[in-house]
């Protein structure tokens, strides 16, 4: 199977994009299997590209284990799609099993969920919000992989993170803008070293500025590490929202996947049906992409834009 790496920051449309790939009958989808520090023992969050060969054995071993993962978090993201070789009854059984496991997980630990049907996947799709800083290394050490670097407008990212935190919906006990552990790790990136940044600099900033720096340094590292690498693409969330079918067709062609009726139907449904849940994949694309213009105060927008102005990630959005 061809590894397809869909990596981006949280609140960047990665779940929607991941489920579009999941809707293809020839994919095996794994939802954030690396979250929670699973890879930390074998690879740092921001590995040096020059040390890629050192991390290759661990990366290959980890990816080879993904088809066997059966945790509810990894394979339980709804909706369920029919895969090639799976009967309609098996698809319905898969959905019923996941719904039952989700209900049971409220009271009991659910360690493993079965998958029904014969597997005929052409692509192994790994969706991650944890390992964007690893994307360049992983792409270069995984034979025949396709790396998709997902990027959302910095104001959209900041607005969505702040909204989720204010509603108590973001995971973790530490606000992203106050996570100095991650900020300290980001100081090891070439962009931070070049600018001679330190933790005291970050501590003096306002929360929205620290979030903007997170966005900048993460995306800058990914762009740097994937530069001139032919098996990589940047997927801009706002472009996917403006022309979902057209832009996803391009991504599927890049990944070596055909355009299937099941995927076309899901893209149409997910962009013409509105669900208010924070993590929903059914949203009005225009509102999802540009709602930050009304939600994020103008003063905060100026602070974010001031941080990213003139940077390579910023130029993706004309900033």
Q: Report the span from N to C terminus.
A: 38 Å
Class of secondary structure makeup: alpha/beta
Strand content: 5-15%
Question: In CATH terms, what is the architecture?
Answer: 3-Layer(aba) Sandwich
Mean pLDDT, to the nearest integer, reads: 91
What does this structure look like?
- The chain has helices at residues 14-22, 52-65, 72-75, 88-104, 135-141, 154-166, 180-186, 190-195, 199-203, 207-225, 237-242, 244-254, 261-272, 285-290, 292-295, 298-308, 312-315; strands spanning 2-8, 27-31, 123-128, 146-151, 232-236.
- It has one domain (2-315): Rossmann fold.
- With 319 residues, it is an alpha/beta fold.
- α2 crosses α5 and α10 (207-225) runs parallel beside α16 (298-308).
- It has 17 helices and 5 strands.
- It is 49% helix and 9% strand.
- The model has no long low-confidence stretch (mean pLDDT 91).
- The relative contact order is 0.18.
- Strands 2-3-1-4-5 form a 5-stranded parallel beta sheet, sandwiched between helices.
- The radius of gyration is 19 Å and the shape is globular.
Chart the SSEs and their pairings.
Blueprint: E1 2-8, H1 14-22, E2 27-31, H2 52-65, H3 72-75, H4 88-104, E3 123-128, H5 135-141, E4 146-151, H6 154-166, H7 180-186, H8 190-195, H9 199-203, H10 207-225, E5 232-236, H11 237-242, H12 244-254, H13 261-272, H14 285-290, H15 292-295, H16 298-308, H17 312-315
Parallel strand pairs: 1-3, 1-4, 2-3, 4-5
């Amino acid at each position: 199977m061809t590894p397809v790496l869909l990596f981006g920051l949280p609140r960047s449309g990665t779940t929607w994009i991941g489920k579009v790939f999941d809707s293809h009958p020839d994919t095996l989808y794994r939802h954030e299997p690396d979250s929670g520090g699973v890879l930390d023992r074998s690879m740092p969050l921001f590995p040096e590209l020059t040390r890629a060969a050192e991390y290759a054995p661990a990366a290959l071993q980890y990816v080879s284990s993904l088809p066997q993962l059966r945790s509810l978090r990894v394979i339980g993201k709804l909706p369920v799609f029919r895969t090639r070789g799976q009967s309609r009854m098996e698809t319905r059984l898969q959905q019923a099993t996941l719904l039952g496991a989700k209900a049971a997980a409220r009271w009991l630990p659910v360690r493993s969920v079965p998958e029904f049907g014969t597997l005929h996947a052409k692509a192994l799709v790994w969706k991650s919000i944890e390992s964007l800083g690893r994307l360049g290394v992983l792409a270069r050490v995984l034979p025949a992989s396709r790396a998709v670097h997902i990027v959302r407008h910095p104001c959209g990212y900041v607005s969505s993170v702040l909204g989720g935190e204010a509603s108590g919906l973001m995971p973790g006990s530490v606000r992203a803008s106050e996570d100095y552990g991650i900020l300290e790790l980001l100081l090891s990136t070439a962009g931070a070293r070049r600018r001679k940044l330190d933790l005291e600099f970050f501590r003096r900033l306002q929360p929205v500025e620290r979030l903007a720096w997170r966005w900048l340094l993460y995306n800058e590292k990914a762009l740097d590490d994937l530069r001139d690498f032919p098996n990589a693409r940047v997927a801009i969330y706002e472009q996917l929202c403006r022309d979902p079918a057209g832009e996803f067709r391009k991504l599927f062609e890049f990944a070596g996947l055909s355009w299937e009726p099941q995927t076309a139907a899901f893209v149409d449904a997910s962009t013409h049906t509105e669900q208010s849940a924070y993590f929903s994949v059914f949203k009005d694309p225009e509102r999802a992409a540009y709602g930050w213009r009304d939600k994020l105060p103008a003063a905060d927008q100026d602070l974010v834009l001031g941080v990213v102005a003139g940077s390579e990630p910023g130029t993706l959005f004309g900033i």
